[in-house]
Specification:
five-stranded parallel β-sheet, ligase, Rossmann fold, alpha/beta, binds arginine, 421 residues, five-stranded antiparallel β-sheet
Length: 421
């Protein structure tokens, strides 16, 4: 219930995350019919492309929303959500760059802002009851505004796809209806997620029409070489041209996408226990992570770099599992941020045939020392001190081998290989 002293329902409208698509367009009228409450639509632009925001805003009103707001959150999404993911080289299950998982906490934040502004007690979203996104929306909302209620018309008010189509036709809603929309798609500037349809049969390979952000890597144009400049973990220039985080992602989506970089086809473990087939395209994200990792190899101290791998995995799992606003995620952010102090410099990247490959590294704060590494003249590494180093480093190995000999055990692979009598 609302904590505001609003006596009538229409003073406590439901704030709906509105995409402009069929389900959320129908949800406007459906919520009103089922709950008697008005709906205020909020459309958040996270770089999903497609329709103009003003067109979406007008459609929400045409579908019966009492008010409709649009938020251009593209810069905010790129800077405050994609860049932390880049600094964490975040790939869920080693593959998925968290496209949808990153946008939900941001959309939730804007829903909460609107709800508070207009004194609403309830926010609604168009997610089903089977996926991760419902959890991300609702856990994000409850983390920042525990006083708010959440409503999922699809899950809680039986708004199935067929019901939605019938409703849209019956009410002549200004939205395209088709019963054979083959995929469920979520996209933003960090990438694109495609699921359902014929992909649910795991043996079916994706067809050409699945892909939008990437061209076929089997028929690539000539290799594309570029230089990305990073400052403390964030791309600030491409080929010496200054870029914002959003521009960096957009530019790499274009150039890496043209080379078919960032196609990902996986069986993924959802938070709700279901395994699902997911096809992703994230050319910009994959190319940026490749370059960022390459620069970290040069600039991070060895133990810090090794430990960061564990943090990266946990960070990705937390964000996937709806913990964007959790204390642990915040603590890990602080660690990751601290590691980025010297992640500045340039990486040369070659994009070609589905791959983004680092082919050059330079940094004023790197830990690579040519004179230590070289085998040519100029070598300053004192090889004679390696002898003493190995004596001490190998001490335990020597003790273990001596014990094995004493106890008559096979202690080495050489013993294992000896013929058995
Ligand atoms: N499986 C991905 C995730 O959980 C993608 C979800 C995409 N959402 C959608 N409505 N198609 O992050």
């Amino acid at each position: 219930m609302s904590t505001h002293n609003d006596p009538v329902d229409h003073a406590d409208p439901v704030v709906l995350a509105y995409s402009g698509g069929l389900d959320t367009s129908v949800a406007i009228g459906w919520i009103r019919e089922r709950t008697g409450r008005d709906v205020v639509a909020v459309a958040v632009d996270v770089g999903q492309g497609g329709e103009d925001l003003e067109v979406i805003r007008r459609r929400a009103l045409d579908c019966g929303a009492v008010r409709a707001y649009v938020v251009d959150a593209r810069e905010e999404f790129a800077s405050d959500y994609c860049m932390p993911a880049l600094k964490a080289n975040a790939l869920y299950e080693g593959a998925y760059p968290l496209v949808s998982a990153l946008s939900r906490p941001l959309i939730a934040k804007h829903l909460v802002a609107t709800a508070r502004q207009i004194g609403s007690s309830t926010v609604a979203h168009g997610c089903t009851g089977k996926g991760n996104d419902q959890v991300r929306f609702e856990v994000s909302i409850t983390s920042i505004a525990p006083e708010l209620q959440c409503l999922s018309p699809v899950r809680d008010l039986a708004l199935t796809r067929d019901v939605a189509i019938d409703y849209a036709v019956a009410h002549r809603l200004p939205i395209e209806t088709t019963r054979h929309n083959p995929f469920s798609i979520d996209q933003n500037v960090w990438g694109r997620a495609v699921e359902t349809g014929f992909l649910e049969d795991l043996w079916n390979a994706p067809t050409k029409d699945v892909y939008v952000y990437t061209d076929d890597p089997a028929y690539p144009p000539v290799p594309d070489e570029l230089i990305i400049t990073f400052d403390t973990g964030v791309p600030v220039a491409i080929d010496s041209e200054g870029v914002t985080p959003l521009e960096a992602v957009q530019e790499l989506n274009r150039r890496a996408g043209a080379q078919g970089v960032g196609r990902i086809d996986v069986v993924e473990d959802r938070l709700v226990g279901i395994k699902s087939r997911e096809v992703y395209e994230a050319p910009g994200a994959v190319a940026l992570i490749e370059a960022h990792r390459a620069l970290e190899a040069l600039t991070l101290e060895r133990l810090q770099r090794r430990f960061k791998r564990h943090v990266e995995q946990t960070w990705a799992e937390l964000v996937y599992e709806a913990q964007w606003y959790s204390p642990l995620k915040e603590s890990l952010d602080a660690f990751v941020e601290d590691t980025q102090r010297y992640v500045s410099g340039e990486v040369r990247l070659v994009l070609h045939g589905g791959r983004a490959t680092a082919t050059g590294w330079r940094s004023p704060v790197g830990l690579y020392d040519f004179n230590l590494a070289t085998y040519d003249t100029g070598d300053t590494f004192d090889q004679s001190s390696s002898r003493g180093f190995i004596d001490i480093y190998g001490l335990q190995s020597r003790l273990v081998a001596a014990r094995a000999a004493r106890e008559g055990q096979a202690g080495t692979t050489q013993d294992d290989a000896a013929p058995v009598s």
